[in-house]
Structure formats: structure tokens, C-alpha cells
Amino acid sequence: MNAMTMQHKQAQKDAPAPRKGRYRYHKLLFHVTATLVSLLFLAPLVWVVLSSFRSPVEATTPPLPPWPRDGFSIDSYDRLENFGQSVFHYAGNSLFVSVGTSVLTIVVALLAGYGFSRYRFPLKNFIFVLILSTMMIPFQSILTPLFLLLAKLGLQNTLIGLVLIYTTLQLPFSVFMMRNAFDAVPKEIEEAARVDGVKGWRMLVQVMGPLVLPGIVTVGLFAFLNAWNEFLAALVLLTDQSKFTMPVLMTAVRYGRFGSVDWGAVQAGVTLMMIPCMILFLILQRSYIRGLTAGAVK
Amino acid sequence: MTDSLTAGPETAVPKGRKRRRLAQWNGFLFVLPALLLVIIFFLVPLGMAAWMSLHKWPLMGFPRWIGFDNYERLLTDKSFWSSLWFTIQYTVVITIGLLGVAMGLALIVQGQGKAVSLYRTIFFLPVVTGFASAALLWVWLSNVDTGLFSPLAQDIGLTTDRVNILANFTPAFWSVIAMVIWKMAGFFMVILMSGLQSIPTDYIEAARIDGAKWPQRFRYIIMPLIRKPFALALILCISGSMLAFDQFYIILNGGPQNSTVTAVYKIFNESFISFRLGYGAALSMVLLLILLVLSIIQLTLLSDKEAKK
Asked: Which of residues 54-93 of B touch A (CB under 8 A)?
């Protein structure tokens, strides 16, 4: 094989021009294809954002071309104001649930990850496997009892109840992620800090915290996006319209009042739901991909 | 805290061991919040689901013990089996389509370079939008009057009439498939890409020099080497699709003629529309069992393959 390799290399050296030309042609073909596919993937997103700025008259016409012809209008967003309470109220609900879930997930997973990585205690492995194995069981199958349980706890129809459930759903991935993050920190760093007189909480927050920050960001990002986008649990557990999160509100808008659907409002709502996720992802791409590949346990 | 814990008979224990026992207790405390959440919001409801499935459990009024009646009933419940069958069909179609497209995308974005990383970002963008947002977007695009697909089909000459693609099963089904592929392909692309990137370029180069054409290189070098990430993508895709709900609820509302009611959708209907909580719980237990068996089969296959290596 080696001899053949040599021969080929020699052949390439002898005839560099056609080889290079073919390579360039391949490269062009590659980029043309990739660009076309990219446009296909981007089109629906761009379409809905552009259309959400069309004037009310245009909102009922077919979406070709998608951009507003009579100038940009935020009328569709204004109309969202009139559906139930102001749209800011529902976006606020979503934000509360998402930020709450992120913060609680980070705190709980940080503590658990530290405990699993640095301590030995009875039943440690059992508890770890128990937390991870909840991933095998779909939460959809325990939705009915969750509904009753929240009622018993006085948390039915509250955003706090939703935060607790979303946090629990995030735990297998997050605890696994945080334990690995702590495992990657050399023990010597802790020992050095201990010699310097750092103890207890200060060790976790001031010494270890910055070292596992990438893990914290990943865990928080996943928790935020999943909570922001979750639909079924929110649909089932929130019965009071003033508690709706954005996806539940928008489904109600989609079915319309008096039978007619306000497509402009749907476009505006979809835009409002998508933009924060995309911005977060674009800023924190690296953390997201790390979470996907490293913690592919999800 | 430390004093009260170590006081009493234990004072005789040498200092080192005392500290170790204390550390044990600390470790447990760190893990406790996570454990409590899992117990309260996962294990307890799981036990409740099993318990409820043995009752006639209306939303109002008292639950009544009926043993395995719910399970007997579901055996003859045609609508449940047809929803399960529909879910399986959907899972098969979406798994083939999604992993095929994701593999294509992964081959595009496995390389280096600014343009390639831009493609990667673009292909991934739909993933971070939720299923609800993507489904709502699709409802609009599919709408017969103000959507995109109908006029587009007219413009390129596919039909002369306006078509409501959501009114009939076949176009509606494929429309949802297209949406899910658009939304999820980037996710599986990343998993497959990480596999592709771990293949040493020497292997491919050597095969190329030995005269292996692209399909052969793909079949005999790339596929065997990315078997593990591919199997992982397969597992995630199957278990995710078996739980499909959002897209069918939002885009089609189960229609046309209840032909797109998935298993989770059926459970949702029984529990939260008809308020037959006990029966809904029994259906949940069956779905849970099916998924558990599926995961165990897949995990065994996965670990078998690893053992053979």
C-alpha cells in the first residue's frame, strides 16, 4: 500500500493543474449546495419575522413577498396586547418560569455535582443512578399524578409549581454535567486553597465556582431554553389564563376568538418566542454544543 | 452543627474517623435537594400513576378501586391502539427522514473554516426554537388563505386550485414530517458531526488513494466508525418521536378525523379532556412500559456492539 501511496503522490506532483482545478470545482459545488440548504433552513425563520411587521391590511394577504410593502408596522404586536392581558404579562410569566428554572437547576445541580464528585457517603452510587434513571421514564406518563400532586401541595396553577417540575426534569442531565465538571478540577487546587485557609462555602463558591463556570453556563442555558419552550406540562398544569406562558397563550391565539384567526398576531407571537432563544444560542453556542455532545445522555 | 453531631459516645472515636464520618454526612446534604426533588416530583407521581391506574378516578368525587378493569378496557380500546399504531408509523418515517437529512448536513459541516461554521449555526438555529413556536409557524405557512405553501404550489404549477394541505391526512402528515425534520435535523447533525470529526483523516485519505469511491468510503469506513454516535442518535430519535404531542396538537389538533392522534395525545384527551384520570393513568403505564422495553432493547444492542469491538 505504501508503494501505491508513493506512486499516487508522484502522479499528483506530475499533474498538479487538473487536480487543483477539479478541487476548486468541487469546492464551488459544495458551497453552492450548502448555501442553498442554508437558505432553506433560514427561510421560515426570516419569513415569520418579516411578516410580523406587515400592516393589518397586508396580514390577511398571501405572504409573497414576505416583507411589508407599505412600510414596517408594529400593529400585529399591538393586537397581541388585547388578547387577555398584555403580551408583556405572558412574556413575563415565561421569563419567570425560565429564569426560575435556570437558577434553581444551577443551585441544585451545583450542590449535587459537588457532593457526588468530592464526597463519599452511603448509597452514593444508588442515588446517582436513581437521579439519572429518571431520564428513562417519560414525564408525559406522570403528568396526571403531577396535576393532582400540585393541587395537594397548593401549587396547582402556579408558576412556582411549574418551576419545580421543570427543574426536576432538568436534573439528570444537569447533575451528570456538573459532576463531570467537578471531576475535571484537580484535587490539588482544593488542597492549595485549604492550606491558604479557605473553608466551607467559600471553597465551593469562590474557588470551585469559577472553575466549573462553563458547566454552570451549559446547565443554565439548557434549563432556560427547555423551560421557555415547554408546552404540554404548561398546557395541562396552568388552567388560569393569567398564568399562561407564551406557548400556551399563542395556542389560544391560534385558535382565535369568534372563529377567525389573527395571523398577524400569531406571527408576532412566534417571533417573540423565537428571538430570545436564538439570541441566547448565538451568544452561548459553544456551551450549547458542549452540552449536546458531552452530556449526550439527554 | 458539628458539635451536636459528634457529641456523646462518639467522642472516643479518633479524630480522623470522626472527620470522615462528618464528611459523609456533608456529602449527603449536598445531594439532598436534588434527591428530594426527584422523590417528590418523580418517584411519588410515578407510584401514584400506578395506583391511579387501578381506580376509576374522576376529577371530582371519590376514586373507586376497580382493580385491573382499566387495563382490560384498554385492550379492546380501538382508539388507543390506533393512536399507538399511528405513533409507531410516525416514529419510523421521522427516524429515517431525520437521520438521513442529519447525516447529509453533518457531512457538509464536519470540516473547518468560517463558511462551514456559519452553515453549522444556520442549520442548528431551528433547533433552539421550541416545538410550539415551530408548529405555530408551520400552521401559518400551511394555512390555505394566508399561508405560503398553497400559493407557492400554484406558482410553480403543481396545482391550479388553492389546496388546504391540512385537510387531508397524507399532505397533512408529510407537512408535519417536513416541519419536524426542519426543526430537529440540526440537533442530530451535531451528534453525527462529533462522530465524523473523530475519524482520523488518514483513514479516508488512505481509502481514497486506494481507489475507494465516495459510496464505498461512506459504507465501509465512515459508517462503521460512527456507529456509536449513530446509535445514540437513533435512540434519542425513537424515544423522542414516540412521545410526540405538540406538533400534532398545534398544527392538526388531531385531525383530520382524529387520524393524527398520537399516544401522548390520546392520554392527554382521556385525562384532561374527558377527565378519566384513572384510565389515562393506565394508558400512561402501558406507554411507559413500551418505552422502557424499547430503551432496554436499544441499550443492549448498543452495549453488545461495543463488547464485540
From this structure: none
Q: Tell me the three cell numbers of residue A246.
A: 407564551
Q: What is the pLDDT of residues B165-193, one digit of tens each?
A: 888 898 899 999 999 999 999 999 999 99
Per-residue model confidence (pLDDT) at position A9: 47
User: Which residues does chain B have within 8 Å of residue A13's beta carbon, measured at their own beta carbons?
Assistant: none
The answer to whether A229 touches B129, Cβ cutoff 8 Å, is yes
pLDDT at site A63: 63
User: Which residue in A62, A111, A285 is closest to B33 by CB distance?
Assistant: A111
CB contacts of A141 in chain B (<8 Å) are: 49, 267, 284-285, 287-288, 291
The span from the CA of B40 to the CA of B38, in Å, is: 6
**B101-132: per-residue pLDDT in tens?**
999 999 999 888 899 999 999 999 999 999 99
Provide, as residue numbers in chain B, all residues whose Cβ is less than 8 Å from the Cβ of A42.
122, 125
If DSSP codes are grouped into helix, strand and coil, which group holds residue B56? strand
Q: Is B295 on the interface with A (CB under 8 A)?
A: yes
Out of B24, B52, B116, the one facing A145 most closely (by C-beta) is: B52
In the numeric block, the cell 376509576 is attached to: B56
Q: What percent of chain B has pLDDT over 70?
A: 90
**pLDDT tens-digit series, residues B135-167:** 999 998 888 777 777 777 777 777 767 778 888
Q: For residue A216, what are the contacts with CB-CB under 8 A and spacing of at least 6?
A: A106, A110, A178, A181, A209
**B284 close to A (CB below 8 A):** yes
Cβ contacts (< 8 Å) between B137 and chain A: which residues? 44, 48, 270
A297 vs A183: CA distance, rounded Å = 17
C-alpha cell at B76: 379492546
Determine the Cα–Cα distance for residues A194 and B51; give it in Å rounded to an integer: 51
Average pLDDT over residues B287-292: 93
CA–CA distance, B90 with B79 (Å, rounded to integer): 16
Residue B225 near residue B160 (C-beta atoms within 8 A): no
